[in-house]
Amino acid sequence: MGRRVLIVDDQFGIRILLNEVLQREGYETFQAANGPQALDIVKKHPPDLVLLDMKIPGMDGIEILKRMKQIDKDIKIIIMTAYGELDMIQEARDLGALTHFAKPFDIDDIRKAVRENILV
Known about the structure:
- Helices cover 46% and strands 20% of the residues.
- It contains 5 helices and 5 strands, in the order E-H-E-H-E-H-E-H-E-H.
- The model has no long low-confidence stretch (mean pLDDT 93).
């Protein structure tokens, strides 16, 4: 059975890149450009892991993370941010995020983190 990964990022190019890389690794992928789309996917197609951008217009990453945890308290989330906002990263970790990546990220690091965290 394929493992499901949800990619949540308002930047189309990043979603496409992560989607292609993760599909090549054998994962079933879902994409969301905003919070409402992401939460809808979590309800309908519960992912094994979420890659979540922190800076999304409208509902930000922290709010999305909180709502995902309300739907599934054990959901696994890796956050991505282009900003060195340590307080946001710490808050996300306090809320249960597994780890974080700063953009621009090394795609091999993401691939490795997904592989390691999805199997746990």
